Amino acid sequence: MPHVISLSSLIPAGLTVEQFEAVDDVLIVTASGRNRQAACPSCSSPARRVHSRYIRGVTDLPAAGRMVRLRLITRRFRCDVGTCRRKIFAERFGEAVPERARRTGRMECIVHHLGLALGGRPAASFAERLMMPVSNDTLLRVVRRRARPRNDVLTTIGIDDFAFRRNHRYGSIVCDLQRRQIVKLLPDREIATVAAWLADHPDIRIVSRDRGGGYGEAAALALPEVVQVADRWHLMENASAAFLDAVRKSMKLIRVTLGATAIDPKLLTSAERIQYEGYLRREETNGVVEGLAADGIPIKEIVRRTGRSRKLVRQIVRGERTDVFRTRQGSLDPHLPYLDAQWEAGCRNGAELWRRLRGQGFLGSLRVVGEWATRRRRSEHISGSELRRTPSARTIARLMTLKRDHLTKSETVVVAAIEAGVPALAEARELTDRFHAMIRGRAVGDLVSWMHDAEESLLASFARGILKDASLSAVQGAIIETWSNGQTEGQVNKLKLVKRQMYGRAKLDLLEARLLGAA
Question: Which stretches are annotated as coiled coil (predicted)?
Fold first, then answer.
C-alpha cells in the first residue's frame, strides 16, 4: 500500500504550511507557527494579543533535489504585564528556527559538521553539490560560533608540541588520555604558559610527555605531586640514537680493526669517489677544529676563529664526523643475497643481472646494478696489501643490533671483528639491548644497576640525560605506568591534517574549534 507524505512532515516541527510554490529549482514554502500564544522573552509571561506580522526568510534542507526557502510568517505579540520592560516582541520557534538565524536548526547542524570535516573552501564546494550553498567564510564562522570548551575533570593527560611553522614557531597540544580526546591547544611551548594552564587543573595526577625538559619543568612547577611519565617509544629511540652516536665516535678504531685505514680511489665507483673527496675536505676542517680543541680552546672561540657553525664544531669535537661513506639503505639491499648467488654461479654481466633481478620484482635502474657489478669486479682484484671499504656508521649500528641468525656470513665476520677490536662498542651494544629489554619487560628494578654500568661507557651521555632534573622519575613512570604518549602523537598527526586543510586560515581558535568539535 503506497504511503502518502505530506509537505508539513518535511518542514521543521512546530510550523504549519500555508502555501508553497516552485520557482526554477527553488521550492518556496510559506509557513507560520502553530501556537496561539507566545512567551515573553523578558518575563516569560504568555501573550495572546497579536500586534503585527512580518515575513522572515529562512533556508532549510533541500527536498527532492531542490533548494527549500521558508517564508516564515512571524507574529509580533504585545506583553500585557505592566512591570515588564518589553512591550512588543517577536515569537520564537525554538531549536527549529533559532533566534535571528538565516538557516533552520537542522541545516545549521549540517553546515557545522561540514565545516568541522572539510574546513572552508572544500566544504563550501561540497555544500553547493548538496543544494545547500554557503560561503567558506560562513562555514568557518559557524565552526567558531558553535565551539564549546571542554569542562571535564582531567586526571591523566598527555602533552606534546606541534609546529605552526617548523623551526620557527611551535604550540602545545593537551590530550585527555582516558577519554582519548584533545582538550586544549596552547599558543606556545614556554614553561610559563604550560605551568599556568596546569595550575588551573589541580585534579591532574599523571602527565605523559616526551623527554624534553620544558614540559617536565612546567609540571614540577605547577603540580609538584603529579606523576610524570616519559614516552616509552622515545626512550627506546633515544637509546638507539645514543648507540649510533657511539658507533660514529668509534669509526676510526673500526677502520683500524677492519684494516681499512687508507682507501685506493682507483677501486671506487664514481658515486663513491665523490663521497670520498667530500670526506677529504671534511678531514681538513676536522683537523683544524680538533687541534684547537686539543689546546683547550672553548667551542665558542673555535666558532669565532674558524667561522664554522656551532653545531658543526660541536659535532667535530664529539667525533661525529668520521664516516667516509655516508650511505643509506638502498633499493638493492634486499636483493643482495640473490645477486651474490648469481655472481658465484658465473653471471658477471651487469645488464644480464639487472634483467634477472627484474624478474624477481626489482624496480631499480640498470645503473644501480651496473655499479654493484663494477664494485664487485674491482674487489676481486684487491691484493692483500690493499685495503677495503668500511661500512657506514649507520650500517654498522644496524648489523650490531640485529640478531646473529639474520646476518650473512660476511656480515657476521665484520661484526665479530668489530666486537673484538673495539670492546667498548660491544659493551655499548649490550647496554642498549639491556635498556630495551628493561622497557619492554617493565623491569624498573634494573634501572639503577643499568645506569651504574652505563656511567663509564660510550652511553654515558644518555645515562646522564636520564638523571637530569625529573627525567629519572619520568623514566621510572614510563616503566611502571600503563600510560604513554603514543596517543598524543596520533592526535598531533590529526592536528597536522586539519591545519594543512586550512592553509593560512589555521589560527589557534579555529584549529582548536575544529579539533574539539570533531571529537
Answer: none
The pTM of the full predicted model, rounded to 2 decimals, is 0.67
Q: End-to-end alpha-carbon separation of the chain, Å?
A: 43
Reading the block at residue 400, the C-alpha cell is 650490531
Query: pLDDT tens, 169-212?
Result: 899 999 999 999 999 999 998 999 999 999 999 999 999 988 77
Q: What's the CA gap between 106 and 108, in Å, rounded?
A: 5
Of 237, 186, 172, 218, the residue nearest 492 (C-alpha): 172
Dihedrals φ, ψ of 274, to 5°? -65, -45
Amino acid, res. 309? S
In terms of residues, how long is the chain? 519
Q: Which amino acid is at 267?
A: L
Element holding 56 (H helix, E strand): strand 50-63
Cell 502553530, residue located: 34
Work out the widest C-alpha separation in the chain, in whole angstroms. Answer: 113
3-class DSSP state of 396:
helix
d(CA 343, CA 346): 5
Helix, strand, coil: what percent of the chain each, to 5? 50, 15, 35
Measure the CA–CA gap between 78 and 74, rounded to whole angstroms.
Answer: 13
Q: What is the 3-state secondary structure (H, E, C) of 272-317?
A: HHHHHHHHHHHHHHHHHHHHHHHCCCCHHHHHHHHCCCHHHHHHHH
The whole-angstrom separation of Cα 131 and Cα 276 is 65
Measured between alpha carbons, how far is residue 72 from residues 102, 262, 467 in Å?
Answer: 11, 90, 70
Per-residue confidence (pLDDT) for residue 429, from 0 to 100:
92
Nearest to 11 by CA among 98, 106, 102: 106
484-508 pLDDT, tens digit each: 888 899 999 999 888 888 776 678 8
Which residue is it, cell 517577536? 90
Whether the CB-CB separation of 168 and 145 falls below 8 Å is answered with: no
